[in-house]
Specification:
CATH architecture of the largest domain: Orthogonal Bundle
CATH topology of the largest domain: DNA polymerase, domain 1
Keywords: 2Fe-2S, Iron, Iron-sulfur, Metal-binding, Oxidoreductase
Organism: Nonomuraea solani
Number of domains: 2
Structural class: alpha+beta
Number of helices: 5
Number of strands: 5
Strand order of the largest sheet: 2-1-5-3-4
Order of helices and strands: EEHEEEHHHH
Pathway: Alkaloid degradation; nicotine degradation
GO molecular function: 2 iron, 2 sulfur cluster binding; metal ion binding; oxidoreductase activity, acting on the aldehyde or oxo group of donors
InterPro entries: 2Fe-2S-bd, 2Fe-2S-bd_dom_sf, 2Fe-2S_ferredoxin-like_sf, 2Fe-2S_ferredoxin-type, 2Fe2S_fd_BS, Aldehyde_Oxdr_Iron-Sulfur, Beta-grasp_dom_sf
CATH class of the largest domain: Mainly Alpha
Oligomer: single chain
Radius of gyration: 16 Å
Length: 163
């Protein structure tokens, strides 16, 4: 067992974990945070997305011991305009992927604001386009197909943040 300390949703947590325990399992099973979901357990669906020091990561692919001393934010610790925008634009149906979608979108907006390029970034492009949102969010799957509402919600919030 290894003792780790992380700041999770603003509270310092101390955990004893085996070195092979994923961050997702530590959050869900040891801390009772069920917002991040175990969808594929292979990093392909994005349902487990959380923010580590403000950067979006797939918690199922991360070992908890790697995040000793770091700050982790799950959907339970989020207070962001995207949450209301998802409701307003019908950005979810069953809700299984929603926590990962919102955490990913928060990270994605920060990446775009910081000028990090994507596969569709136009040189010198300032505003976030729909194609850019779809590319940057492509690591988060929605089995219900609520993509249009998700994109609309993100565009809505991005427009308010930039304007």
């Amino acid at each position: 067992m290894t003792e780790i300390r992380m700041k999770v949703n603003g509270a310092v947590e101390s955990l004893d974990v085996e070195p092979w325990v994923s961050l997702l399992d530590a959050l869900r099973e040891r801390l009772g945070l069920t917002g991040p979901k175990k969808g594929c357990d292979q990093g392909a669906c994005g349902a487990c997305t959380v923010l580590a020091d403000g950067v979006r990561i797939n918690a199922c692919l991360a070992l908890a011991v790697q995040y000793d001393g770091r700050e982790i934010t799950t959907i339970e610790g989020v207070a962001h305009p995207l949450q209301e925008a998802f409701v307003r634009h019908d950005g979810f149906q069953c809700g299984y992927c929603t926590s990962g979608q919102i955490c990913s979108a928060i990270g994605m907006l920060a990446e775009h604001t910081a000028g990090m390029p994507s596969a569709v970034t136009e040189p010198g492009a300032g505003e976030l386009s729909e194609a850019e949102v779809r590319e940057r969010m492509s690591g988060n799957l929605c089995r219900c197909g609520a993509y249009n509402g998700i994109v609309d919600a993100i565009m809505d919030v991005a427009g308010k943040e930039s304007g």
